[in-house]
Amino acid sequence: MRKYFIGYSFVFQMRGDSSGLKSIRILFNQRNHNLHFHVMGGILTLSFMKRRITLFSIAALCVGFSLNTSAQILRGSTTVSGTNNMDITVTVNTNTNMVEIEMTGMNGTWFGYGFGGSSMSGRYTMITDGAGNFQERQLGTHTAGSALSSSATVTSNTTSGSVRTVVVSRSRVGQSASYYTFPNTATNISLIWAKGSGSSLSQHSSSNRGSSILTLQNICNFPATVLPNITVCSGDSAMIFGNWESQAGTYSTTLTSSVGCDSVVEQTLVVASSLSGNLPLITLCPGDSAMVFGHYVNTDGSYYDTLQSSGGCDSIVRQIVNTENLVPVVVQNGTTLNASGTNATSYDWIDCNTMQSTGVNSPIFNATANGMYAVIVTGNVCTDTSACFTITGIGIDENSVSTTLSQPNPFNDHLQITGGSEGAEIRIFNTTGVEIYSATRESVSQDIPTTNWPAGLYIIQISTPRETLVQKVIKQ
């Protein structure tokens, strides 16, 4: 027992080998039907419900039904004599190169059909006698001519009331010049027909014969069946006609319809892009944070989130976070302050006592009055303020002070303050304006150790509510 699967709709079981007439059982729509098949010229045909259907070649069985998928089914029917119940239907299957002819006539008398012309002489004819016996003949000139060896197989021979129906099949191409070769394109076939008056082949009257035309038409002009589009995301694939496909395009397959015609099915695959992109840069100032994809972050870096696009595909979004570090740096040289800052775009010098702008907006600040000054540095996004720097020694003429504030001058390891009254404020600065000593005057002569002071110029400032005294001294 061998089981084969045909198309998508039914299964049949076959017993025996592939020659001669065998029995076959077919399971279709959950109902069993008894059929017969015949093998001729390597072609397997089924007889089912008075119809002879060519299925496939025996060679196709051996290779798993590798069928020719460019089939045309040509069919034509005509009534040549309504009075005599004579109808004929011809079906040409160009895929299998087989022809099926269904002929009707009066039961109990002979009837016949000739093909390829309107005269008798040399005409290939199929005749059924009054007893239902079928034969092929080549007619003579107004004679019965001669019988031909059989090239056709009777697949059905039935009667219903007074009408006999005979169905035969044969190769489309005739065995020799004596046989008719049926066309393989849509066209007209010239016919002759005749009906006898008895069961034997004999002369017939003029009212029981004639000619006609049968028109073959292609019944396989079916439009392609277009299935709904399948959409996948980039990198995914879909099963289309038994194969996994990942490239966008239209795919097609050719099936065989119930009558043996090609049936083209088309399936379009749409590949939707998986989007990715960058959001605008977020710039933080030192100590700040920002909301990124539902979380606060305060660390520089790239953050990612996966969203879903309108097409249902993943969309990867990147957010870059960067901190702008200005780090203002101020260098003091006497009464001049020089500022710089990473990513700085502008400067504004302010008075630390009043927090008001001095109106100076350059990196270099030349003080015109004693005091404490700082710079506000602005970058692309952020702003930072430097420490305050002290400026002294502006606007006081040392030579106008007759009082000696300290001794000795120059000095080495110590400096003795002799000027100013008790309770005065003593402040000493280096030449860069950095205060290195401060105290309150406690005695007439106050000694200050200076062993660790670098050699150079120093400014002594002694202030009381009434006056400020300044003296420059040098350490050797």
UniProtKB/TrEMBL annotation:
<feature type="domain" description="Secretion system C-terminal sorting">
    <location>
        <begin position="408"/>
        <end position="474"/>
    </location>
</feature>
<dbReference type="Pfam" id="PF18962">
    <property type="entry name" value="Por_Secre_tail"/>
</dbReference>
<dbReference type="InterPro" id="IPR026444">
    <property type="entry name" value="Secre_tail"/>
</dbReference>
<protein>
    <submittedName>
        <fullName>T9SS type A sorting domain-containing protein</fullName>
    </submittedName>
</protein>
<keyword id="KW-0732">Signal</keyword>
